[in-house]
Amino acid sequence: MGCKNTIFLILVATLITKEALATQHVVGGSQGWDQSTDFDSWTSGQTFKVGDQLVFKYSSLHSVVELSNESTYKKCDISTPINTLSTGKDVVKLDKPGTRYFTCGTLGHCGQGMKVKITVVKGNGSSSPVSSLSPSSSPSTSSPTSTNAASTSQCFASLLLFVTLSFATMIYFF
Length: 174
Description:
Layout (H helix, E strand, L loop, with lengths): L1 H19 L3 E3 L12 H6 L3 E2 L3 E5 L6 E4 L2 H6 L7 E3 L3 E5 L4 E6 L11 E7 L22 H30 L1
Parallel strand pairs: 1-3, 2-8
Antiparallel strand pairs: 3-6, 4-5, 4-7, 7-8
Helix pairs in contact: 1-4
InterPro entries: Cupredoxin (IPR008972), Phytocyanin-like (IPR039391), Phytocyanin_dom (IPR003245)
Pfam family, one: Cu_bind_like
Keywords: Copper, Electron transport, Glycoprotein, Membrane, Metal-binding, Signal, Transmembrane, Transmembrane helix, Transport
């Protein structure tokens, strides 16, 4: 019975650690999901990995529409969206490799450049913590807040894994 508990706890710890190490990318950096953001520049400084999350922060003037393919993205055709979000702080999990397309659902905003193409790659570990870069920042630097948050997250995940494994070992031997 102790061996089954140990395996279960290790599995739970692994899943929790993987989730804690995922990077949250605030779309558009400090400017957020806004017409004034240069999304091409913002994405060029990012690495999006499976398990990461996109966070769209925006005012009530905007929304987030996920499109199915590059053709609808280029044409700004929002007539058949995959998903539409409108809370002002939406989180989208990047759950598989590939390309995803997002635009604003407000009339005219897509045509004015309020759209972003995200290429998700396979990868182990966390993404580089550059999620809060503004479009004018260089990709080789990151803000102290972003770096500290990533370090804290990794420290917490390591501590959680250690405690879980210690608990599993105690159950197994006692």
